[in-house]
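Make up an example, fold above all:
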Amino acid sequence: MFKELANMKSVRIIIPLLLTLLIAGKVNSQFSLIVFSDKGEKFTLYVGGDQINDQPASRAEATRPGGPNFKVRILFEDSSIPEISKSIFNTPSDLYYVIKKSDKGKYALEKTSSEYVHHDDNAAVKEEGKEVKKEEAKAEVTEGETKPAGGGGKGCNNPMEPPNFYTSREMISNAPFDGPKLTQAKSLADKNCLTTSQIVDVIYLFSGESSRLNFAKYAYKHCWDPENYDTVKEALNSPSQKTLQQYIDSLK
């Protein structure tokens, strides 16, 4: 009799515990893993053995599997760079990891609090406590002048600063589905000058290919470096890439 009661007590404890673990695994699977390279190196991301991006890119995003941890692999487009393997612990939030090259030339995958871009040609960098601007990659223009992005390497002036961009990107990301996201993204493009890297970051917020193509076309006229728009095309599927190129050609 006492043995049966003890067994029933054990069952009552175990079942809720199992349900809690199952729910935790389900919740973890709803969050994303975002991996990006600090200097723009292109790579293929594998999560738990599944290939995430079809073509090498400088950024990849995946829905995380459930469980307490999972494994990732990074294969670089440049075969001279050794692959990276890492076991990542799940947490109930989006995870951001950056691929960085150490002073000794070794690549590593490091956890970070959010996304940022260091490989912008015109970015300001901190060096020994002083702000130093990298060599200007674009021709200077008169302050306030707006350049049309109609081809020939000419784009808009004064690209959006990374901190302001990622604040706006977060707001777009919080929209419930593609419709509101697209409206906010277009508003962002209307009010600011965007780099191709920033445009790609916004494109990855959309779940539908039609929304991705829609924004890629819309953002072209608000792009600081349209000569690099091939990087935007890489974020789309093959039919969309052709449609985007036809649109760009029609503006020239």
Summary: The beta strands are 32-37, 43-47, 50-51, 59-63, 69-76, 84-89, 95-101, 107-112, 124-127, 130-133. The longest strand covers residues 69-76.
